[in-house]
Amino acid sequence: MTLIPTLETDRLVLRAPEARDFAPFAAFYASDRSSFVGGPLTAEGSWRMLAMEIGHWTLKGFGRWIVQDKATGNIVGMVGLFEPEGWPEAEIGWDLFNGFEGKGYATEAGRAARDYAYDILGWQTAISLVKSGNDGSAAVALRLGARPDGTFTHERHGELAVWRHPAPKELADGGYEAYA
To answer: What is the pLDDT of residues 8-29, one digit of tens each?
Structure first.
């Protein structure tokens, strides 16, 4: 079993997903807000999705974290590294749960996830996939310094915009993100 590290930012804790996270996870996936990431789903479908998120860590050695607000303890979403079968390459992804958008959580957690991918895992590149109409997610990609890099058509999600993140060297040199 892969040990899932805990990451911390100024406001957030990124931690391993657990069974206790099912209720907020299922509430998100039952909502229309989840339509950009494969929802809405029934409770049974949400349970399978949570199990997939946990299993991704074992199968790939990396994955997505539950994001918790340090001040309130609220579960605000799920952010991290994702590369399931059928994905074009390794992704940094973010799903904010209902009511937590517009507070900078996705950008803050996305930056921590990317730092982990580059500094710990040694990735040299990463993408984020954004479904058409998901303007909030595209704005997060832009704030992280990512730039449009074509499209990818997924068998279930359809056409997705590919956003390419700056490489580690570009970030070290001040790159795109310094001006975002």
So the answer is: 999 999 999 999 999 999 999 9
